[in-house]
Design goal:
about 120 residues; alpha+beta; two-stranded antiparallel sheet; globular
Length: about 120
């Protein structure tokens, strides 16, 4: 099978050789999580290269990891606007979501709380 690579403004998007659809999806997922998080300058006003990177990763693996460059200046309203910009219309509610429908993740030195959203851990 042939492996193709398509270049974009944020780096190569690999179309990996696979035997079937499930293998192909898993290959894209593994590739996506191996990439660094997309750096977002202003969540409420995505730049074209940020928007393109998110859309391409979601298209390939249904997942995009991003990081706000200035998290202390990013509000829940900004994150909801980012969701709107990329076409996310319905947020799933979970036990860790706040009233806006968002789950805030913080990196801490404490090992007391090891909950990982959307997992059994």
């Amino acid at each position: 099978m042939k492996q193709t690579i398509r270049e974009n403004r944020v780096g190569p998007v690999r179309h990996l050789p696979s035997k079937n659809t499930l293998d192909r999806r898993l290959d894209h997922y593994r590739h996506t999580i191996a990439l660094p998080a997309i750096e977002i300058e202003t969540a409420a006003a995505l730049k074209l290269h940020e928007f393109t990177a998110i859309k391409e990763r979601v298209f390939c693996s249904n997942l995009a990891l991003y990081r706000c460059v200035k998290p202390e200046e990013t509000t829940a309203a900004d994150v909801l606007e980012l969701c709107h910009q990329v076409g996310l219309r319905r947020l799933d509610r979970g036990s860790a979501t706040n009233v806006a429908g968002l789950t805030q993740l913080k990196v801490t030195q404490s090992s007391l709380k090891r909950y990982v959203p959307y997992t059994s851990r």
